[in-house]
Amino acid sequence: MTDRRPGAPGAPVPPVNDRLAVIFGPRRRFRPAPPESWRAIEGSVGVTLPTDYKEFVDGYGDATVFGHLGIPHPGTENGLADFIETFGPAFLGWQDPWGRTPPDPELARMIPWALHNGNGDICLLDPPVGESGWSVVVAYRHFPELSVYPGTVTDFLELLHEGRDLPREWPQLPAAWQSEESSLI
User: Could you tell me which of 49, 60, 34, 52 has the C-alpha nearest to residue 84?
Assistant: First the structure.
C-alpha cells in the first residue's frame, strides 16, 4: 500500500496554493503585491525570492497567522521592505551585540520574512548555496541559537500546522488568520 499523504515518500505534491488552502482556508487577500514591489525587494536583497513565499504573502500576508506570527506584505505602508531593513540588522546584532566583528556572510545573506509577536523571534529565508535549496531559519531572541528547517516556507507552515518540530518554546496554535488593523489590501 502506498502512503498518499502530502509529504509522504512517493506521494504527489499538491500545488502550493492547495497546500496553503489546507492550512489557512481560501485566499484572504485578492490584490497581490505589484510586481514592481517584489522586484524592488528582490533587488535590495540580491536574490529572487521563492515562488511559494510570494504566493503565501500575496494570499495571506499583512496579517498574523497561528496567533503569533506576523507576516508583512510588500504592498503596504511600513511593509516588507521596511521589515527587512529593520529586522535584518537586528538579527545580525543579536549574533554580535557589541559589533566587534564584521557580520558573518552566512548570516548576512538571510532575509527576514516574519516575526513572532509574542517573543520577538525572527523567521528568515536562507537562500540556496550550490546544490542546496531554500531553508527557513528561526533566530531566537532570548536564546543564542538558530533552528534551521530545510525546505520551503510552505513546508515550514505545514510543520507549524501539524505541530511537528515546533521552534523552541513556540506554542501549537490553530492556523488562525487575523488581518492587521491598518491593512488596506
Answer: 49
CB 154, CB 19: distance < 8 Å: yes
Q: Are 136 and 153 in contact (CB under 8 A)?
A: yes
CA angle 112, 113, 117 (to 5 degrees): 100
For 169, the 3-state DSSP assignment is coil
Instruction: Give yes or no for a contact between 175 and 66, defined as CB atoms under 8 angstroms apart.
Output: yes
- Asked if 74 and 57 count as a contact pair (C-beta separation under 8 A), the reply is yes
CA distances from 92 to 46, 99, 109, 149 (A): 17, 9, 10, 19
Q: Are 77 and 149 in contact (CB under 8 A)?
A: no
Read off the pLDDT of residues 15-71 as tens digits, 9 standing for 90 and up.
668 899 999 999 888 778 899 999 999 999 999 999 999 999 999 999 999 999 999
Residue carrying C-alpha cell 566587534:
100
Q: What is the CATH number of domain 16-168?
A: 3.40.1580
Domain boundaries, the chain: 16-168
Reference 20, options 183, 169, 153; nearest CA is: 153
pTM of the model: 0.86
